[in-house]
Write a structure and sequence with these properties.
It is a single chain. This protein is an alpha/beta fold. It has helices spanning 36-44, 86-102, 121-132, 149-163, 179-191; strands spanning 6-12, 24-30, 62-67, 71-75, 106-114, 137-142, 168-170. It contains five helices and seven strands; from the N terminus they run E-E-H-E-E-H-E-H-E-H-E-H. Strand 5 (106-114), helix 3 and strand 6 (137-142) form a beta-alpha-beta unit. The longest helix has 17 residues, at 86-102. The chain starts with 5 loop residues before the first strand and ends with a helix. The mean pLDDT is 91. The structure holds guanosine-5'-triphosphate and magnesium ion (MG). Magnesium ion binds next to helix 1.
Length: 192
Amino acid sequence: MKITSAEFLKSAFQEADWPQDAKAEIAFLGRSNVGKSSLINSLLGVRGLARTSNTPGRTQSLNFYLINERFRLVDLPGYGYARAPKALKAEWGANAENFLAKRAQLVLSIHVVDSRHEPSKQDLQLHEWLEHHQKPNLIVATKSDKLSNNELRRNIDRAKQALKTNQVVIYSATLKRGREKVWSAIEKSLKG
Ligand code: GTP
Ligand code: MG
């Protein structure tokens, strides 16, 4: 994919704020602080377009990015941040699930997991939800630069087993490892 333009479009805190045209969208989901925003930036090759942070729970709204004036990447808030107030946790589920369930132009959900850790209960729930609702999805295991090859192989096998899938893309935002694979999945989903 040749990126000719990438711009921040808007933040949406409620459904009424979602963009109203029918452009195709690719959503990025996963645990708080797992590296969703970094993945978006590294895919686009721009630093700081999607806000990243060491503070978990940074992205609270749905953030829409317009790419090549043709399709959108959507950065969803992270789940599972233990210190978030209860009301906020409940709202995450409602907001994100509402978007995933209703959004007709959602062509792909990129489920980001941490290659260092075993998939969490919420990771499993999300994956089951996506499969059950027949939402095309891709699991991307990021932060692979933090592991040795042996650890990485072991963890990816473990994640595949837990999530009952054969397809996990090994990624590193720092090294841009896996970038071509993710883009080819996005391109495929855009051709529909
Ligand atoms: P929330 O918006 O809070 O849910 O977080 P997020 O999932 O968007 O994570 P974010 O991209 O902000 O990254 C969290 C932290 O992990 C930051 O300090 C990033 O620099 C770091 N990080 C993300 N991806 C990678 C990676 O592939 N390798 C390494 N070494 N660090 C990464
Ligand atoms: Mg983020």
